[in-house]
Amino acid sequence: MNSCFCQHRVLRLLFTAAQESQFDQNSLMTCKSAFNLLCRTPDRTGVQAEAVVRGTLLGKLLSSGNDEHARTLLDSVLHDSAGNPEGLYDVIAAAFLSPDDETSSVTQRCVLAWLQEHEGCLGEVCRSLSPGLCAVLSRHSCEFKQAYCGVLKRWASCLEYDVLESLWVPTSDEPVTFSALTDRFKEVLNSGPALKEETETELKTLKREAGDFNVTDISIWTDLIIQLKL
């Protein structure tokens, strides 16, 4: 029998058990077992392929209790995955890729609010996921798009131009290079006309607010716009 099918059967059994119990320690442990199983994927490239199933299951898991239950569960799984959170990040990505309906919207808002409550967690998720996947998520989810845009702007603001090295270098703990930032913006621009137009408008606004320079090596936004046109 297909291992993925078996995994989903076990997950559904765990979810049913969690939904039939009250919000207590036993219920939390049951949900954690389901979540940990959901986080186990042999290949990270399968995030998009199983997004419907994984995102839907996460929605059911988080909706098995109240908001406190959902936050406690996510906190606990994050704590347990310290040092190796990629599986958790993949499940979070799947939630933003799940089909648009009332349940998925609630799940996305819940997950995003939780990420924003944990300093650096949203940035870690974005850094962990590939530029291409983040662009797909931005096209699919308005909530993620706005959050990702904020992360990219924060990363850009952490770069300053080093005259001696003749390049933009990080000035904080955000280890994002100018090249990596450019690649991420390129993926967003290539994700469709609507997102491209919206992103270009935002970049022009940021350039104007930073002094509207047309020469290089002064404003990060000017240099990004120039690089993105190459």
From TrEMBL:
Cited Pfam families: FANCF
Coiled coil: none
Gene Ontology cellular component terms for the protein in this record: Fanconi anaemia nuclear complex
Domain of life the protein comes from: Eukaryota
GO BP terms in the entry: interstrand cross-link repair
InterPro entries, per the entry: FANCF, FANCF_C_sf
Full protein name: FA complementation group F
Species the sequence originates in: Sinocyclocheilus rhinocerous
Lineage: Eukaryota, Metazoa, Chordata, Craniata, Vertebrata
